[in-house]
Structure formats: structure tokens, C-alpha cells
Recover the amino acids of this structure.
């Protein structure tokens, strides 16, 4: 018996809808780096980790907004015309998901950056912060 085939696959239309829906709320390290590197200005990157983690190492230009602190008051300065790209530590962390959920509830368009700062660093992209690439990879 096939473990792959035992559950019927979606139709091509269903699969297309599913994957487009996924891409509407997710982006990845490589795509974010590519856009920042080429000066794309249609989104703002938000680091939702702790103050300490942000101060030690973050994506260049990222705004700091810890996910527990997200509220209408703390997001007042964010540009509502721009998509927000949120990230946290790694694929093992759901801080970005929590932050994205809160931001969306406040009316922002938002995507999660898959992989977080861990994969940003693994892929060799530049960072800002006091410890730079020597900062811890877990919080
Ligand atoms: O700081 S965090 O681990 O909740 S993203």
C-alpha cells in the first residue's frame, strides 16, 4: 500500500489555489534579500523577537516590534501602505506567526519570512547589530 497515494491528491485547481494562498502569507529569506538588495521599497521588515536579540543581530533596516507588544498604539508609526514582512528566530519558532496574526488583526497586510534570522544568516546575508554574526542562533 502506498503511503503517498493513500490520501487522494487535490485537483490541479485546488492545488493551485492552495499554493497561491500560501504564497500570499509567506515569503522566504532569499526573496527578501533579493528585494532589499535591489532597493525594493514596497514592504517593511519587522523583527518580532526580544529587545536583546534585536540589539545583538537583525536584518538590516528591520524595525523592532516584539510580538507580545504589538497593539494599535505600538504600530501607529508603521506605514499602512506597505506590506509587513515579519520574522523571528528560525523554523522552530512561531513568534513570527504570532506577530503576523496580531498585525493582520490590526488591519495590516503581512507575510512571514520563512526561516527567520537563522536562515538569513545561514544563507550568508549581511546583518546589523552589536554582535553581528557571532550572536546566538537561539533565544
Ligand atoms: O522572542 S520570541 O522567541 O518569542 S520570537
Amino acid at each position: 500500500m502506498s503511503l503517498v497515494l493513500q490520501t487522494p491528491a487535490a485537483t490541479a485547481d485546488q492545488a493551485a489555489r492552495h499554493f497561491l494562498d500560501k504564497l500570499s502569507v509567506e515569503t522566504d529569506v532569499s526573496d527578501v534579500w533579493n528585494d532589499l538588495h535591489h532597493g525594493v521599497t514596497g514592504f517593511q521588515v519587522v523583527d518580532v523577537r526580544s529587545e536583546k536579540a534585536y540589539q545583538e543581530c537583525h536584518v538590516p533596516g528591520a524595525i523592532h516590534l516584539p510580538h507580545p507588544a504589538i497593539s494599535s498604539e505600538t504600530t501607529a508609526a508603521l506605514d499602512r501602505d506597505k506590506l509587513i514582512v515579519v520574522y523571528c528566530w528560525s523554523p522552530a519558532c512561531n513568534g513570527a506567526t504570532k506577530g503576523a496574526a496580531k498585525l493582520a488583526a490590526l488591519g495590516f497586510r503581512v507575510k512571514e519570512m520563512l526561516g527567520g534570522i537563522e536562515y538569513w544568516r545561514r544563507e550568508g546575508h549581511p546583518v546589523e547589530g552589536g554582535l553581528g554574526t557571532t550572536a546566538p542562533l537561539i533565544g
About this structure: The mean pLDDT is 97. Strands lie at 26-28, 43-47, 63-64, 83-87, 110-114. The chain has one domain: 26-134. Residues 26-134 form a domain with the Oxidized Rhodanese; domain 1 fold (CATH 3.40.250.10).
